[in-house]
Write a structure and sequence with these properties.
The chain has four helices and six strands; from the N terminus they run αααββββββα. By secondary structure, the protein is an alpha+beta fold.
Length: 108
């Protein structure tokens, strides 16, 4: 299967698992775990060693650099995360936060 098809199936299975967990059918949900792991390991998530990314933390998103990628495990200096908790850095982030200041001279 192509990577896009794997990702589509991964999202579908993940959605079913969330619905089953929300309805309290945990044993049925757990039957999907082997398949979701298999799909996750087969998918090329597009992350490579040395890529700057943002990772999910308790306080929001923090920038970090990937140290190693093993299947569906993405290793950082202090933790290992799944691809669902990582995103590419937001482009033009600096432009949104940067403000242009005018230099004012007190001694004219």
């Amino acid at each position: 299967m192509k990577n896009e098809e794997l990702i589509r199936e991964y999202r579908e299975v993940s959605k079913v698992m969330k619905e089953l967990a929300a309805s309290g059918k945990l044993e049925e949900r757990n039957q999907y775990v082997p398949r979701i792991r298999e799909l996750s390991n087969q998918i090329d998530w597009g992350y490579r060693k040395g890529d700057p990314v943002e990772r999910k933390t308790g306080r929001g998103w923090e920038e970090d650099v990937i140290q190693e990628v093993r299947g569906s495990e993405i290793h950082f200096r202090t933790m290992i995360l799944p691809p669902a908790m990582i995103r590419r850095p937001i482009k033009n982030k600096d432009k949104k936060n940067a403000k242009d200041y005018e230099q004012i001279s007190l001694f004219s």
